[in-house]
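User: Design a sequence. Structure:
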């Protein structure tokens, strides 16, 4: 199946070249769509050199609009049969693509989540990040009758038709709960597989903070009752 990788990027000059190479090295990628969300650290200059690449498609936002906005652009541009979100840092390992893709190829799933908590090697996140993730995942499970272990994971893989016309409104990190809410309410088959995780600290460039938990919680509640 043709796999489109959607990579939102914002100020990732230290990691963008390595993660792109890791994605391409999987040998599974039909197209890599990188959406630069107004970077100011030199990331855009690196991406500019890939405009003529056979596999890479680069799109630029003139100003920083948030991860949700960048993913929305990527979904609009994707032409593959299957789409996965890939952060531009090195926290997630593209070698897990094959495990994520298998349930879709076998016709058992429409959406596959990569869980950081099902046993594969992982650099441990700090307590409050784990606690916040666990709480938000619990809320999602209760509100939408799910049984997820990692709602906030970046690795979400979709059959293209699942997201092609999805009216995503999130601009920032409330993207993950909105995607989960919309997928669950639409009745799509969700599968979870174990993935590796190498979390980074704030001094290494991590951007999400505890403050992002509040809009994520509100997003889960809101979409339980509205479309």
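Assistant: Done.
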């Amino acid at each position: 199946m043709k796999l489109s990788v959607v990579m939102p990027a914002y100020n990732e000059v230290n990691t963008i070249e390595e993660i792109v190479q890791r994605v391409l090295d999987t040998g599974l990628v039909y197209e890599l769509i990188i959406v630069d969300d107004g970077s100011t650290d030199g990331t855009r200059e690196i991406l500019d050199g890939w405009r003529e690449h056979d596999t890479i498609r680069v799109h630029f936002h003139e100003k920083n609009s948030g991860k949700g906005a960048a993913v929305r652009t990527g979904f609009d541009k994707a032409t593959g049969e299957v789409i996965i979100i890939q952060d531009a840092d090195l926290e997630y390992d593209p070698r897990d693509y094959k495990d994520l893709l298998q349930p879709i190829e076998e016709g058992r799933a429409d959406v596959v989540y990569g869980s950081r908590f099902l046993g594969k090697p992982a650099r441990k996140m700090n307590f409050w990040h784990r606690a916040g993730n666990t709480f938000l995942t619990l809320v999602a499970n209760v509100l939408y009758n799910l049984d997820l272990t990692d709602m906030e994971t970046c690795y979400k893989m979709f059959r293209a038709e699942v997201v092609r016309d999805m009216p995503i409104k999130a601009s920032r990190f409330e993207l993950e709960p909105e995607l989960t809410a919309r997928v669950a309410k639409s009745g799509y088959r969700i599968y979870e597989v174990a993935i590796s995780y190498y979390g980074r600290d704030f001094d290494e460039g991590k951007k999400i903070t505890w403050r992002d938990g509040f809009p994520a919680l509100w997003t889960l509640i809101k979409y339980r009752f509205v479309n």
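Residues 127-144 form the longest helix (18 residues). Strands lie at 3-9, 29-37, 56-61, 82-85, 111-115, 122-123, 156-159, 190-194, 197-198.
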